[in-house]
Amino acid sequence: MKLSERSFGVVADAFQRVSGIKLLPAKRQLVIGRLQKLATERGLDSLDDYVEQVIQGGDQTELVRVIDRLTTNETYFFREPAHFEFLAELVSRRRPGSEFRVWSAASSSGEEAYSIAMLLADKLGPTGWKIVGTDLSTAMVDAARTALYPMERARNTSPQYLKRYCLKGSGPYEGQLLVSKALRAQVHFEQANLTQTLPDIGQFDVVFLRNVLIYFESDAKLDIVKRVTPLIKPGGYLFTGHSESLSNLPTGLTNVRPAIYART
Questions:
Q1: pLDDT tens track of the chain, all 264 residues?
Q2: What are the chain's domains?
Q3: Catalytic residue from among 65, 68, 101, 135
């Protein structure tokens, strides 16, 4: 299927309005690939017709599916290991009696949040900690709650963690893993848009805001960080992706290690 320049502009404008992310013309083929299945399911063989019906026609339910499809990104467990090493250090010197809370602010399908959960369960035991995961995509939130993944995504996970915190699939679930029920009980997922008012989810010792700021221009990036920062406890930390930098932005945070910032 083809997508006209005009229709791409309509999709890009709608996507930026909802997500805050600007789709550059170089992403046109990605948009075509992501929307073809949605158009076919709708019984249409033209992406231009699909855009006209869904976006210009004001079909809000289908627009949510479009946003979900365009924000879907594959991830994996224990991505960027240095962050988990630093998190283990923080946990080792936490104050006794206080609940250790972590927010996975762009949690995608949940691998990051469950990686954090495995580490905290290992270091702190089954209680005394809590994790919240949020994502723009409702489809990703649903996938995270289900917690069923291809084994390939656990390629960086230790065999000990897999044995203790995951169930290996068999039969129709061959080649997949399911995060244990006990671990899932400690992780709460909900939908949230980082460019808008955030839900009331409390404050956190650590916030993972990784591999999302790269999609935003400087003003929008700073706006997100300023919205997230009050949810970090004084003395807490913000983790960004290693390809992201806040060094030229007036965030008020202190860079303590690569892609790790402290709220002092």
A1: 899 999 999 999 999 888 888 888 988 998 999 999 999 999 999 999 999 998 888 888 888 888 888 876 678 999 999 999 999 999 998 877 889 999 999 999 999 999 999 999 999 999 999 999 999 999 899 999 999 999 999 999 999 999 999 999 999 999 999 999 999 999 999 999 999 999 999 999 999 999 899 888 899 999 999 999 999 999 999 999 998 989 889 999 999 999 999 998
A2: 5-70 (1.10.155), 81-262 (3.40.50.150)
A3: 135
The rounded distance, in Å, linking the Cα atoms of 175 and 172 is 9
Q: 139 is written with which tokens?
A: 């489809």
Active site residue 34: yes
Bridging pattern class, strands 100-104 and 204-209 = parallel
Q: Hey, is 51 helix, strand or coil?
A: helix
Whether 135 is a known active-site residue: answer yes
Rounded Cα gap, residues 140 and 109, in angstroms: 5
